[in-house]
Amino acid sequence: MLSQYMQQIETIGLNLFFAAIFFFIGMAIHDVLKQGSVPKFGRYIVWLVLFLGCAGFIAKGIIQVSWETQGIG
Q1: What own/partner pairs with CB < 8 Å and gap ≥ 24 does 1-8 have?
Q2: How far does CA 31 lie from the centroid of its chain?
Q3: DSSP string, 24-45
Q4: C-beta separation of 50 from 25 below 8 A
């Protein structure tokens, strides 16, 4: 039974791994911004870029799932 769902398990594991990587990147950026006394505008720009990276990754996943369910990919 486990072998039937191996691809789904791998996909979920990979997505969780990327989510953890984004979390750790965010924590590292937070620490660097706090230690470096970065102005508020700079902090907002940094967090915007990080958010857009996460949003792009999530959009890619949604597009991939929708294409696979339609038989395109």
Answers
A1: none
A2: 19
A3: HHHHHHHHHHHHTT--HHHHHH
A4: yes
Q: pLDDT band for 73, please (50, 70, 90 cuts).
A: low
Residue pair 50/24 in contact (Cβ under 8 Å)? The answer is no
What digits encode the pLDDT tens for the residues 22-63? Answer: 889 889 999 999 999 889 999 999 999 988 988 888 898 889
State the sign of the Cα–Cα–Cα–Cα dihedral 29, 32, 36, 37.
positive
CA separation for the pair 1, 5 (Å, rounded): 7
Which amino acid, residue 15?
N
35 phi and psi angles, rounded to 5 deg? -70, -30
Tokens of 34: 């706090």
